[in-house]
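Could someone model S-adenosylmethionine with this protein?
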Amino acid sequence: MGSYTNGVVGDQSGASNGGGGAAAVDKGVDFANYFCTYAFLYHQKEMLSDRVRMDAYYNAVFQNKHHFHGKVVLDVGTGSGILAIWSAQAGARKVYAVEATNMAEHARELVKANNVQDVVEVIQGSMEDIQLPEKVDVIISEWMGYFLLRESMFDSVICARDRWLKPTGVMYPSHAHETQAYYGVDMGALTKPFSEEQKKYYLQTSLWNNLHPNQVIGTAAILREIDCLTASVSDILEVRSNFLSTVTLPNTRLCGFAGWFDVHFRGCKEIPAQKEIELTTAPSVDNGTHWGQQVFLLNPPIRVTEGDKLNARLNSILDSYLPPFRNRYFIE
Ligand SMILES: C[S@@+](CC[C@H](N)C(=O)[O-])C[C@H]1O[C@@H](n2cnc3c(N)ncnc32)[C@H](O)[C@@H]1O
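Reply:
Sure, complex below.
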């Protein structure tokens, strides 16, 4: 996940030099903007408290033990060590748990406290820099950023995959979807300066929100699908996608677009999952996640009614602005 404060998304731009020629790492900037938050337990605790996230990974591992039993696993960005420990408990022969920050020390403690220190080896370092003594059967990682790829660490996972995954290896998760739908909220209380600020900054980027499903007023459309086994860094850098959505409510206002993602644990063609698990971050009353949704506001809102069809195109580019305004989005 990306780091955030007060609903504003942090940035991990250029976090890797791996697989496919992404921008060179500026580790100083990375550390300030991203890794430092992960070195604190409060932030790891926030992720560990996300029930939907935890259940999905837990079920993906323990309902597919055949992927782990007797296998070598790489956990990219182990944080507190939770996914590495579960992999060991599911029968892995060896787990390499790589973590860039000092959280690696806590991971070591947790590994020992759970008596899996003979299986799990915590390695502190950047995934792009470290060496492993062998190739691995499984790469497990929780790499997803807001709206999937915004400030995500997927490029580090791609780098790990290209360097260390056996040709027959399995990615956990294996597939990801970015999804978009319309939503309506009352923006009547906006003041003029607020609206100007919106035009200048927020209308060209996206903001964190946890929407109620009732706020979604149109059908959802999948913007793109990513196969984690084959995607390259250039595939994920920018979004260019046409999508069609139909308004599902009578006489309402279209105030913006909401984007979220799903990831799937399907194993691979040769060794499919016995039980396919989905982790979705769609608007939900009971199953919200810390990722929430990213909203792209429209100003002014548009009057729409049930059955209206909207053809739209979302383009994103990486700009030279400071985070969180670095990713600029254009909806036509
Ligand atoms: C979203 S957290 C997930 C932590 C843990 N795996 C979990 O599921 O609770 C991502 C972790 O990956 C680490 N990380 C991100 N990029 C990394 C990289 N290139 N090399 C090593 N660790 C990295 C971060 O410091 C952070 O602790």
